[in-house]
Amino acid sequence: MQVPETVDEVLDASGLQCPLPLAKTAKALNGLAAGNVLKVIATDEGSVLDFRSWAQGSGKCELLAQEISAGSDGKKRYIHYLKRT
Amino acid sequence: MSEETTVIGVPAFDRVLLSEGGTQACLLDVRNPIEAMRWRPEGPGVEGYANVPYFDFIDDEDEAFERVPDASQYYVLCAKGQSSDYVAGLLRDRGLDALNIENGMNGWASYHRAVRVSDSGDGFAIYQFARPAKGCLSYLVVAGKEALVVDCSRYGDVYRSFAEQLGVRVVGVVDTHLHADHVSGGSGLAKDLSAPYHLADEDAQDSTLDRVAIPRSFELEDVKVKVLSIPVPGHTLGSTALSVGGRYLISGDTLLPDGVGRPDLGNKAREWTELLYDSLHDVLAKLDPRMRVLPAHVAASKQYDRSGACVRELGDLLTMQPSGDRGAFLEKVRGLVEGSSQPPEYAAIRKVNLGEGPSGNIEELEIGVNRCALVGAES
User: Fold this and answer.
1) What is the bridge-based pairing of β-strands B48-51 and B7-8?
2) Quick check: helix, strand or coil at residue B360?
3) pLDDT tens digit string along B42-59?
4) Is pLDDT above 90 for A84?
């Protein structure tokens, strides 16, 4: 799995606790055309497994990649790349 | 009109779990299936169970509700208590009785249940602290105004505040052995309370901990109660059982409700199995079989009685062990060891318990399963 070179939309869900990062992601995906890529930035560690499970069962999107990076505030960022199907 | 109750705290939920006749109650687990499969609270008070992730309610509420089994009372669980709050609200909107379990699995992971397990006429008191999320048992032995803490979890404050409420002073903190399954709070608690931390020399090799050996006996309140230490090597070389007042045996991992502590964690399985045989047959079998055994673990929630305690008779536990001569015992234990996997992360946990500092996230070590590597992540 590769981090895609281009993304069509970015959703910053930093600071939000579940269920909000995923709920906002679901809403944002609804507004995207098939094939478009959404990048979601979250601070909630639980989002890693939640996004993975959700993408497998949902049928609305494909999880292209996930990565962790350090934010400017020193907190970890959990980044998810989702393609609208 | 009073406001509708929408949440239940973890201690109250624990009492529900321990009660009987939970056929009409359902634990609705809204975590992702990977986490849900790893571990969850269990007990006879809540027999129903379903895992319907919260994101399925977000995707298609009606479809998700089709997978919610019928029940008269729902307890809704997630990792931290927020997604479950959302789903419990959806259930109530549909006229169902649903309570959100406060703080979810985070709250459950750190919860300790305290039950007095000694008789009132003993002249001392033993409190058993069960940490049901880990199946770990620990103890506070109280005589007069003095107390010993045994096998304390990494939540040392639980014991400290309990002792404060009783108005007793902790005069020692003991680990019956170097734990491999959970992070010990023993040395930290001892430091906080300016009490000695005891761990057997044999288990503390290479340790940088501020520690003293386990004495032959502890004398609480001027010998009103004698706590005798009994070396029982096998699970570890330094494993020590504590006899309290001659009637209770705090057994560490040497005797457990369903067996013995595995002797294969020191890479000397054969030698340690022989030691275990000697400890069982030459030491424990010579004690009064009516002694009440207070182990360091339970393996399943059904091993708690209705009060939430786990106490066994020594004679009963010894008859459950592989019988016969030394050769037969070695053979049997070897079969058991080969047929079961070693506790996950045990090497890392032992390092932490030897004072080498946490490497990584202690919560994750204790859950016992590593979170999967991130897909597509550069490490």
Assistant:
1) unpaired
2) coil
3) 999 999 999 999 999 999
4) yes
Contacting residues of A for B80, CB less than 8 Å apart: 17-18, 46
ipTM of the complex: 0.93
Give the model's confidence band at B359: pLDDT under 50 very low, under 70 low, under 90 confident, else very high: low
Q: Nearest CA to CA, how far is A12 from chain B (Å)? A: 18
| Residue among B192, B183, B206, B190 at smallest CA distance from B266 | B206
Please report, for chain B, the start and end positions of each structural domain, with discontinuous segments joined by +. Answer: 7-108, 112-356
Q: What share of chain B is helix, strand, coil (3-state, %, to 5)?
A: 35, 20, 45
Q: How far is the alpha carbon of A78 from chain B, nearest alpha carbon, in Å?
A: 10
Task: Dump pLDDT digits (tens) for A31-48.
Answer: 999 999 999 999 999 999
Q: Which of B34, B58, B376 comes nearest A65 by C-beta?
A: B376
CA atoms of B262 and B239, how far apart (whole Å):
12
Distances (CA, A) of B18 to A60, B14, B107, B162, B304: 41, 6, 17, 22, 8
Q: Quick one: pLDDT band at residue A67, thresholds 50, 70, 90? A: very high
At the topology level of CATH, where does B7-108 sit? Oxidized Rhodanese; domain 1 (3.40.250)
Top-level class of domain B112-356: alpha beta
| Cα distances (Å, whole numbers) of residue B48 to A64, B8, B71, B304, B306 | 36, 17, 8, 19, 19
Confidence (pTM): 0.85
Dihedral angle, C-alpha B162, B168, B170, B171, nearest 10 °: -170
Element (H, E) at B93: helix B83-93
SS3 call for A12: strand
Catalytic residue, chosen from A16, A18, A41, A63, is A18
Cα distances (angstroms) measured from residue B86 to each of A46, B90, B99, B235, B251: 16, 7, 11, 46, 44
pLDDT higher than 80, residue A71 = yes
Q: What are phi and psi of B349, to 5 degrees?
A: -65, -40
Residue ranges per structural domain of chain A: 9-84
Query: What's CA B342's distance to the chain center, in Å?
Result: 17
- Tell me what the pLDDT averaged over chain B comes to: 88
> Could you please report the per-residue DSSP string of B59-80?
H-HHHHHHTSPP-SEEEEE-SS
Residue with tokens 């079998």: B285
Topology of the domain comprising A9-84: Translation Initiation Factor IF3 (3.30.110)
Query: B377 to chain A: which residues are within 8 Å by CB?
Result: 65-68
